[in-house]
Design goal:
Mean pLDDT: 91
Low-confidence stretches: none
Oligomer: single chain
Largest sheet: 7 strands, mixed
Strand content: 5-15%
Number of strands: 13
Length: 611
């Protein structure tokens, strides 16, 4: 058990047992062991570069830190009982055990304040990656369910009353849209999260000439935090992540509530599998949707963590305060239960069975075709408000006779409106109701099939901004298409310097496509170096790259994006229009004058107007 404190020299007496139990964070921040060791390895190299450590000392410390993690990673939870104040104290004590007093040199120039801030950001970054995958898995399960049950029809509800029939697949894809937004929020939060506080010290910055940009890149951060006071006290990213988790759990709770209702004896639309349900200790007939009820219940737990963290940050003065130790337990717990909820919801969907007959019967009840009858009258020239009133009269008549609208005799309908004829019955059929919803986003089979196809395609392809780890893949793609004569060649150094211009597609962790947005000094922008790995069988990557770069152009308030291409059909599909090269003096001066094909250029100029 450890009893020496990193700060003990100032104190004649140690902390009381009660205060130590209240103060120590190792019982929960032990989960940051890998990140603390990772940051320490990078810090050792930074100290070597400024002469605090020799190359031999740096190497010895780094090897010891790696050895320490190798011994811990099989059972990191054992660290929690080591008795140290926090994970930083534990790592330093273990390091001193391995290398002696040399281990005490490692903390030179850094504070636990920038150390813990770095550890937590590293941990959160990994969680974003993992949770993004969990969200993708659940979307995939919903898409599989939509494919499997494309013929099922259920009643859609407003005010929890039957409103209009929809395809069950349309319902499933509604939750895919919600989960896609959750993914987008995670990705967006990562932009602000992925900055390094290391080297900011306790609050004023380190006194050593550390190259913080290089240090940040070494740890995989996009850049260092730019203000030391803010860096050590910023927990905005924790709030953002907890907010995303809370909203995602709200989506899961809504999904759970729908399924619980659909599974009820009153609805009977679906049956949940035995492996996600439980029975009653008293009533042998019961089959309870406990997994989904727990998803619904844990939503409050995750939202509670967000509220707690918000109150913790309220009124905190700059810079670091011990209140910030409260950033971890709620975050760790929320992410644990968010991940578990995503996984168990996927399992609930995978074993779900749809009762097609019961669904169809319900979809045909509740006068769900009343709006369709009003539209029928509109097609006959009746103003909608008048049609709405007349259909209301027919609904009252049908209710009084306890029969659906389509069972009313033609003569009964004609008493309300003489324009109604025999074709009304086909108009009121369930198939007719669904097939008419052909507008984008509607519930017709054609629209749902199209939406499902797009979802499946997007699930295979991840589109993102490029980073330095993508350089080799981008160089290979640009080189391949330059050799094929489709793109201009670009040197590796040029691509490195222009990495912020690139977007890439990623499939199963591999970069498969790239494109860049080059901005001329006049404000004209050009899509360049567009290429997809010819061995990839996944379609749509080029379109997604163009969409990504056009979105970037909009964010930059650019007015015009151009491209020179031999495949005008592709860009026409992306709403580019043809233009003359004479309107592109920037491009002509930069590239065309130097191109060996200048006199016999077979590329066409096209443009996309953003404003």
């Amino acid at each position: 058990m450890a009893d020496a404190k990193l700060w003990g020299g100032r104190f004649a007496n140690g902390p009381s047992e009660a205060f130590q139990a209240f103060n120590d964070s190792l019982p929960f921040d032990y989960v940051l062991a890998e990140q603390d060791i990772q940051g320490s390895i990078a810090w050792a190299d930074a100290l070597r570069q400024v002469g605090v450590l020799t190359a031999q000392e740096c190497n010895q410390l780094q090897q010891a830190l790696q050895q320490l993690w190798q011994g811990l990673k099989s059972n990191p939870s054992a660290i929690a009982k080591a008795g140290d104040e926090d994970i930083h104290s534990f790592v330093e004590r273990e390091l001193v055990t391995l290398v002696g007093d040399l281990g005490k040199k490692l903390h030179t120039g850094r504070s636990r304040n920038d150390q813990v801030a770095t550890d937590l950001r590293l941990w959160c970054r990994q969680q974003v990656t993992d949770l993004t995958r969990n969200l993708s898995d659940l979307q995939q399960q919903l898409a599989l369910l939509a494919e499997r049950e494309i013929d099922a029809v259920i009643p859609g509800y407003t005010h929890l009353q039957r409103a209009q029939p929809v395809l069950f697949s349309h319902w499933a894809l509604a939750y895919v849209e919600m989960l896609k937004r959750d993914q987008e929020r995670l990705t967006d939060a990562l932009k602000r999260l992925n900055q390094s506080p290391l080297g900011c010290g306790a609050l004023a910055g380190t006194a050593y000439a550390i190259d913080r940009r290089q240090l940040a890149h070494q740890l995989g951060f996009d850049q260092p935090c730019l203000n030391s006071l803010d860096a050590v006290s910023d927990r905005d990213y924790v709030i953002e992540l907890l907010s995303t988790a809370s909203l995602s759990m709200l989506h899961l709770s809504r999904l759970a509530e729908d399924l619980i209702f659909y599974n009820s004896g009153e609805a009977g639309f679906i049956e949940l599998a035995d492996d996600v349900t439980s029975g009653s200790s008293l009533m042998p007939q019961k089959k309870n949707p406990d997994a989904l009820e727990l998803v619904r219940g844990k939503t409050g737990r995750v939202t509670g963590a967000l509220m707690a963290m918000t109150m913790t940050l309220k009124s905190l003065p700059l810079a670091y305060n011990k209140d910030l130790q409260e950033d971890k337990e709620g975050l760790f717990d929320a992410f644990k239960h968010w991940r578990a909820a995503l996984q168990i919801t996927s399992q609930c969907l995978s074993g779900l069975k749809v009762n097609h007959q019961r669904c169809r019967e319900a979809a045909q009840q509740g006068y769900a075709n009343a709006t369709e009858l009003a539209d029928y009258l509109v097609a006959k020239g009746v103003p909608f408000r008048q049609a709405h009133h007349q259909v209301g009269e027919l609904v009252q008549l049908a209710i009084s006779q306890r029969q659906p609208l389509e069972a009313l005799a033609l003569s009964q309908m004609q008493r309300v409106n003489a324009n109604i004829s025999e074709d009304v019955y086909e108009w009121l059929s369930l198939e007719s109701l669904l097939s008419k919803r052909q507008a984008l986003g509607g519930t017709s089979r054609q629209q749902v099939t199209s939406a499902l196809k797009k979802v499946r395609q997007q699930q295979q392809i991840s589109v993102r901004d490029a980073n330095l780890s993508d350089i080799d893949a981008i160089v290979g793609l640009v080189g391949h298409w330059a050799m094929a004569g489709e793109n201009l060649p670009r040197a590796k150094d040029d691509i490195i310097h222009s990495i912020n211009e690139f977007a890439v597609t990623e499939i199963d962790g591999q970069v498969m496509g790239c494109a860049s947005l080059y901005i001329y000094t006049t404000g004209l922008a050009e899509i360049r170096s567009l290429g997809v790995n010819p061995k990839s069988s996944v379609k749509g990557q080029g379109r997604l790259l163009v969409e990504k770069l056009l979105d970037k152009a909009r964010q930059l308030h650019l007015k015009r994006v151009i491209v020179l291409t031999r495949v005008p059909d592709f860009f026409e599909q992306q709403n580019f229009s043809h233009c003359s090269k004479d309107t592109l003096p920037e491009k002509v001066m930069k590239d065309c004058e130097l191109c060996p094909k200048k006199a016999s250029c077979d590329e066409l100029a096209m443009e996309f107007r953003l404003m």
